[in-house]
Amino acid sequence: MITGHLLSAADLTKDEALNLLATAKELAAITDGPNKKLPTLRGKTIVNLFFEDSTRTRISFETAAKRLSADVINFSAKGSSISKGESLKDTAQTLQAMGADAVVIRHGSSGAAKRLADTQWIQAAVINAGDGTHEHPTQALLDAFTIKQHLAENKKDLSGLRVLIVGDILHSRVARSNVLLLTKLGAEVVLVAPPTLLPVGVNDWAVTVSYDLDSEIEKCDVVMMLRIQLERMADSFFPTEREYSRRYGLNNSRLMKLKKNAIVMHPGPMNRGLEISADSADDLKSVIVDQVKNGVSVRMAVLYELLGGAALVGSK
Ligand code: CP
């Protein structure tokens, strides 16, 4: 059982992460049935506080909270008093006054979720839904869940699996959280990127680094393509998009080199034709739609554990 906040994948022990994945599996089995809704968080209020755009994360947290019968307030910076200059402190105190039990926050600044959790502005559980280029722990949890579902269903953890994370590692909170979580769960992680898209200090991470996708592609069980985050790039990190795509994009010829049971992942949103071809995104090896579906069950598990929900129907 996790308590307090979920700010980083590093907050979770291996057992806590595996328990969350098991709870998510149980919740998925229940909500895949005719009655999708459980009464476990009735009376709780969950606020989705989004200072940056989101499709998957915001909708899946909202769906997760509603499936657990919580009340949901969706709050985006656009259209709120934040656009008139209201501070994070005043916003947090407003949410406290409204009785928020949990705040799911996405923010463009690394550390924003921790800032909210560390202050006395609000007593709610804080869940990091992506802070700058820092972390996105629930994305890593849903990715681990999806890998386990496809490649290690009857195994305890992800030992023996080799995961390639390819592309814009430098700007990717998804990559950081996945490196922390997947290695904790026993997977071997290889980062593949041009040197310009790797962060300073990457050699201290518990990963292997390669600049050559073609020498790695046939050895992996999972290839996770990352979005090129053009909106965070003030400088030029590669010569042209065409050149990037040629060296680091997933295309048909690379797809053919993958092992028979290997899977293709992408956290979304995708730049089709840049880091991943349309054919690769829609191939039978692609589990990208499963990642989105699993996001709901995993986020249900996180909300359920942090808010101490009533016993699950059908649980032991
Ligand atoms: N993967 C992810 O965080 O997607 P959104 O930006 O659509 O939430």
TrEMBL record:
All residue ranges annotated as the Aspartate/ornithine carbamoyltransferase carbamoyl-P binding domain in the record: 5-149
UniProt EC number: 2.1.3.2
Pathway: Pyrimidine metabolism; UMP biosynthesis via de novo pathway; (S)-dihydroorotate from bicarbonate: step 2/3
Keyword Transferase: yes
GO biological process, one term: 'de novo' UMP biosynthetic process
UniProt xrefs under PROSITE patterns: CARBAMOYLTRANSFERASE
Residue intervals of the Aspartate/ornithine carbamoyltransferase Asp/Orn-binding domain: 160-304
HAMAP family referenced in this protein's UniProt entry, alphabetically: Asp_carb_tr
Name the record gives this protein: Aspartate carbamoyltransferase
UniProt organism field: Candidatus Nanopelagicus abundans
The gene coding this protein: pyrB
